[in-house]
Amino acid sequence: MGEKLDKRTKWSYCIGATGRDMAYTLVSMFLITYIQYTMKLTVAQFATISAIVVVCLIWDAFNDPLMGIIIENANLKGGKFRPWILLGCILNAFVIIGLFTIRPEGWGFVFFFGVGYLLWGMTYTMNDIAYWGMLPSLSSDPKERNTLVTVMGVFICIGQFSVAGLLPDMVAGNAVMAYRIAAIVIASCFLAFQLLTFFGCKERTRKKNPEVLSLKDMFKIFLRNDQLIAIGIAVLLFQIGSGLLIMIGMNFFYFEFGYGIGGNLVFWFTVMYGLGTLISEALFSTMSAHFSRKQIITASTVLIILGYLCFLSAGYLLPKTVVVLNIIGFVIFFAQGAFNMTMIVMLNNTIEYDEYKFNERHDSVISAVRSFATKLAGAIDQGAMALILIISGIYAISQSISNLEVEAGRGVLSHDEVIVSADSFISQATAVQRLILRLGIVVVPIIAITVAYVIIRKKYIIDEKKYDELVSEIAKRKEV
């Protein structure tokens, strides 16, 4: 049993997650949309920016374990994690404000964005790895850790939803100023919440581990574990499939319902995202008590495919109404939440599999694999989104709207004038262009998540019975 976690540390740590996820959601969900609808860029310039995002996210995926090694080897006066949390937060807040306020034109903006986005990823990683690294150091009591994760999850959702749900309804018609104000407010919240964590959390003194894994060691452990490879690839494919709907959602609602009302509809769709994910996570332990993990994965895959097919058919076979789309969204997000929770358990179970086969236990590698897969999936999704927008012709139309937003930012056009003119441009989009956009949102997730399911069914062998055998055998070895 570990030391009792004091309430001040517990709440300072958990509440601090709110600002972090506000800042991350702003950049990950809205930066490209901000550029698409407020910067006058050619297709070549937009494609280059998308390529920069892909390259930076791939670098960021490799940078996670590197940052972990740096933090592990550092010996700073303020503690092992707190100095990195504060430094990363301060630097990242300034970068966020710069990305949404500094506006050179043309290729000058492309260059500025490349430098700024690289700095954003590196400074956020500095804060992110230190923040999550602090979690297991706060308490060694499993029950207390679970409580900490649960409470923190609530504040993570508050941070995500406060940006993802509210911002889309505020930007249309004065996007340049709205994004600028949002960036300043959210960056300030990021700093304020992380200052709470910095000053409120009490780090415990831990004995320094004399043997620190190198990056080469980490990949060696990954490659020797066939079950970790299988579930790691499945996690990557799932993350690719589950990200596009939210990323391209604003474009879909703009072009299906209009520029003025589209942001409001994104808000309600985001509510479905939050509800679906939270309910599936809350019910996961109950589902696990009645069904096997592979049964949950199978049912989730079927629901996801049916949900996306219904999304594709809305307006053709099914009514294209807000109610119908929100019901479809809830089903998709609920199923994706259950699929994701099951994969997290499967991924964690490879720790005991590795210990069983090689008599070594490396919990940290699991976190690195999941983080690596998430960042790499984000890079692939960014590239896919850019291709879908360019190939469908949606990007070209959105540039006409971008011109309007630039004029509104200069005070030349009013909010209402922007909305009316934007809707006239959107009405020029053909049925084929809208269909291509919708196919891009639907086809990639169906293929990626289906392949992830097949890999799990064919290659992953650690079911409930097998896991119990592994744990039992490991316990026997320790008794000898």
Describe the protein's architecture and organization.
With 480 residues, the protein is mainly α. It has two domains: 7-201, MFS general substrate transporter like domains (Growth Hormone, Chain: A, Up-down Bundle), CATH 1.20.1250.20; 213-393 and 429-480, Up-down Bundle (Growth Hormone, Chain: A), CATH 1.20.1250.20. Helices cover 84% and strands 0% of the residues. It has helices at residues 7-38, 43-73, 82-101, 106-138, 142-164, 168-171, 175-200, 215-224, 226-257, 259-290, 293-313, 322-358, 363-392, 394-409, 415-426, 431-459, 464-479. Helix 1 (7-38) runs parallel beside helix 3 (82-101) and helix 10 (259-290) crosses helix 12 (322-358). It is globular and about 80 Å long. The chain starts with 6 loop residues before the first helix and ends with a helix. The relative contact order is 0.13. The model has no long low-confidence stretch (mean pLDDT 85).
Tell me how many strands there are.
0
Task: Determine the CATH topology of the largest domain.
Answer: Growth Hormone, Chain: A
Query: How do the helices and strands follow one another from N- to C-terminus?
Result: HHHHHHHHHHHHHHHHH
N→C terminal distance: 23 Å
The helix-and-strand class reads mainly alpha
CA radius of gyration is 23 Å
CATH architecture heading of the largest domain = Up-down Bundle
Q: Write down the overall mean pLDDT.
A: 85
SSE inventory with pairings:
Layout: H1 7-38, H2 43-73, H3 82-101, H4 106-138, H5 142-164, H6 168-171, H7 175-200, H8 215-224, H9 226-257, H10 259-290, H11 293-313, H12 322-358, H13 363-392, H14 394-409, H15 415-426, H16 431-459, H17 464-479
Helix pairs in contact: 1-3, 1-4, 1-5, 1-7, 2-4, 2-13, 3-4, 3-7, 9-10, 9-12, 9-13, 9-16, 10-12, 11-12, 11-16, 12-17, 13-16, 14-15
